[in-house]
Amino acid sequence: MKKSLPLLLLLALITTILAGCQSKNDVSPDTASETTGQNAGKETEITMVTLSDYDKYGLNDVISSFEKANPTIKVKLEMYPFNNYFETLEVKLGSRSTDYDLIMVDGPLISNYTVKGYLAPLDSYLKPEQWNSKWVDSSVKAGTYNGKLMAAPMDTSTQVLYYNKDLFEQKGITPPSSDPDQRWTWEQVVDAAAKLTYDTNGDGQNDVFGFGFEQVSRAYQILSLSDSLGAKPLSDDGLVATGYTNSDKFVQAGKFYYDLFHTSKVSPKTDQTQEYFKTGKLAMLIGGTWDPKIFAEAKVNFGIALHPYFAGQKAATPTGSWHLGISETSGKKEAAAKFIEYLTLGEGAKIWFEKDGSLPANVDVLNAIDQDPKYDQFPNNLYRIASYEAKNTAVSRPVTPGYLDWESLYFKAFEDIRNGIEPKQALDGIVTQMDRQLKKYE
Amino acid sequence: MASTKPIKEIAYYALHILIVLAIVSPLLFALVSSVRPLNDIFKYVSPVTWRTFIPTEITLQAYVDLFKEWAFGTILFNTLLVAVATVLFGIIIGSMAAFSFAKFEFKGKSLLFGFVLLTFMIPFEVIAIPLYRLIDQLNWIDSYYALIVPAVANGLVIFLYRQFFMDLPNALIESALLDGARWWKIYTAIIMPLCKPVSISAGLMLFISQWESFLWPLLVTHSQKFRVIQVALSDFTTEHSTLWNEMFAMAVIAVIIPILILLPLQRYFVQGVTNTGIKE
């Protein structure tokens, strides 16, 4: 026994040295190709940071056709999981590493990255007359900070009301409409939802529910309530929440949210609403353009209707999605800008929409959707609806450098409301915390 | 007297069964969900019935897909390689450092040891950016070096060993020196064999910390061939949906492997920790 330990240590040393060698061998081809790429001088390789699997969703197709058109530029992808994408970006951009040229950024975070100096302004590469009327307004608004274009929209998003046809039929209820003139009000939604909330096995507890939000308590979806009432979430400079996030109209929106869980009780107390809809336990769901594929795989007999609004008020829908920006520390900004132009304004925008299926922010592609008969029928008419919403009712999230701080407190307040705290109390309580967080960006 | 005893016993067991249920049911749900078809997973969650925990349709597809589509073999190899290499280097470096802290006198010893203590009191998030910059400058991004080297020198391991070494009588070392043993011989043949429980505790600690490490591997590696298990797990949650059955399948494996290693060694683990708590 006494002799075995030194022997073990020796063995350990050998194995680890071997492991070390192996990792060296694994790394060397990569670094070798990188250096030769740079030495050659003719070819520029730009690196784009994006989400896991985006290569398969169509970026590879965009890149290969871009490289055909620009033979001197190569685009390399670095992909990270969605759940931790923002933390990863924070460290990589914060370290001022020069390894990255293109960064896929979420719309509401652009102002924060601008304030921190992570992004290079695009104005000198993409002239306003090139894109002025080419992107939908809400996307231009999200990509601009202090009058400068900081990131170009890759796509945008909208939300629609999905409903389970079978459940509506069983209860003999007329389903919601996909005609903008017949758009359901929130009052109609709650009425129908009340009839669709019931107990199937007689244990006294409801197990089918009428209505749910896919992104429970998240500002992206829930803001549409206060937006419909015409409430502004933050002051114009994006630094004050008091008087905005707790305004009377905001509290009214909060009250509506509260009632869904505690008064009419038509919403289930789960955050897995998408799963509930997939398994026929939820009759109506506010969800995105990505959902039909998921629902079809789960064999749900579903229909598509317009996002609801408050009676007598204006229709307002969630919007915003991924933008593409250039890292301030990149040494290849010129080449990077060429790719941005190709993907957001050029041929790439079409390819990206065809492969990925996210709602385009490019007006030309949206117009093509409006014309193409392919989008007349269900389920493709979803894009017709989405295109209408993007151009007419989309309200972007507030522009503030403290978006993440504000959003996480917003989430907390609406989770409290969902758990039974009075809306006024929850929102009054949260705005002081919001103001404290936003103060650091003054 | 005789009649109260069974009632007491029943209550006692009932309470224990309740506690066990509370702890085991989430794990059971994960296990059951991993053998269910994807679209069935949330079918039986409300209302909770026997179907919630007993699958009616069993499929091992999720496990097969792990190896076929997610290169789980590579992921497992990477994680084990990183964890084992960290344990081996960590024990050697940690124990050597601790030995010098415990048995040698040199200038600035207390200050240096203070720094060692600091290293495990500063949260990782604080040093993530500078550490990343350092690894980037060394050109170690996307390599095993980036995963292993920063974890090798562990303050807590040095602390554990030092506390144990402090309790070893100096006479032991002095007599070995008189017999003509060199320091290397003393360290390898006398000291290390004596502190097996500490080595096992430290090894387990390093192993678990690498097995569970997530943010750091996520930051410093991006290609598929360096994926470790926790990063791979987060890949199942995509922007708009989650591949629950495959995630549960991988989670089940991610739990089982450390348990298999921990269970036979746990009695040393406890012994190691209590040993170091005793001071003269």
UniProtKB/TrEMBL annotation, chain A:
Listed InterPro entries: SBP
What keywords are annotated for this sequence in UniProt? Signal, Transport
The region annotated as signal peptide is 1-19
Q: Does this UniProt record's set of keywords contain Signal?
A: yes
Q: Does the keyword Signal apply?
A: yes
Q: Which domain of life is it from?
A: Bacteria
Q: Which family does it belong to?
A: Belongs to the bacterial solute-binding protein 1 family.
Q: Which PANTHER family match?
A: MALTOSE-BINDING PERIPLASMIC PROTEIN, MALTOSE_MALTODEXTRIN-BINDING PERIPLASMIC PROTEIN
Protein name, UniProt field: Sugar ABC transporter substrate-binding protein
Q: What is the lineage of its organism?
A: Bacteria, Bacillati, Bacillota, Bacilli, Bacillales
TrEMBL record, chain B:
Stated membrane topology is: Multi-pass membrane protein
- Tree of life domain: Bacteria
Q: Which ranges does the record mark as transmembrane?
A: 12-32, 75-99, 111-132, 144-165, 186-208, 247-265
List each copy of the ABC transmembrane type-1 domain by range: 76-265
Query: SUPFAM superfamilies attached here?
Result: MetI-like (SSF161098)
**Keyword Transmembrane, does the record have it?**
yes
Q: Which CDD domains match?
A: TM_PBP2
Q: Which PANTHER family match?
A: ABC TRANSPORTER PERMEASE PROTEIN MG189-RELATED-RELATED (PTHR43744), SN-GLYCEROL-3-PHOSPHATE TRANSPORT SYSTEM PERMEASE PROTEIN UGPE (PTHR43744:SF8)
Name this polypeptide is given: Carbohydrate ABC transporter permease
Q: What is the lineage of its organism?
A: Bacteria, Bacillati, Bacillota, Bacilli, Bacillales
